[in-house]
Amino acid sequence: MATAEAAAAKAWSERPEGYAIIKEAFESTSQNIKCAMAGGTLYESMSLDTDISLVVKADE
User: Fold this and answer.
1) Of 30, 36, 38, 57, which has the highest C-beta tally within 10 A?
2) What confidence score (pLDDT) does residue 49 get?
3) Which residues, including other chains, have CB under 8 Å from residue 12's CB and lie 6 or more apart?
4) Could you list the residue range(s) of the whole structural domain that residue 45 is in?
5) Which helix (H) or strand (E) holds 21?
6) How many domains in the chain?
7) Which residues have a Cβ under 8 Å from the Cβ of 10 and sit 6 or more positions away?
8) Cβ(28)–Cβ(39) below 8 Å
9) CA dihedral for 28, 29, 34, 36, sign (positive or negative)
10) Run of H or E including 11
11) Which Gene3D superfamilies does the UniProt entry name for this protein (predicted)?
12) Cα dihedral angle (14, 18, 19, 21), rounded to 10 degrees?
């Protein structure tokens, strides 16, 4: 994923409407959602009720 695309995805997920979509998808199990970027890679971290941290790496 290009840095610009990762930045756009991060910005979307941090806006109320993007966050609401992510939150709804994980609402039954998530306690917290965080986003971070490293170059062109976007990381989404979700803390679950089971105290397991799920990290998703998105790139092409």
Assistant:
1) 30
2) 63
3) 18
4) 3-58
5) helix 16-26
6) 1
7) 35, 36, 37, 42
8) no
9) negative
10) helix 3-14
11) Hydroxymethylglutaryl-CoA reductase, class I/II, NAD/NADP-binding domain (3.30.70.420)
12) -170
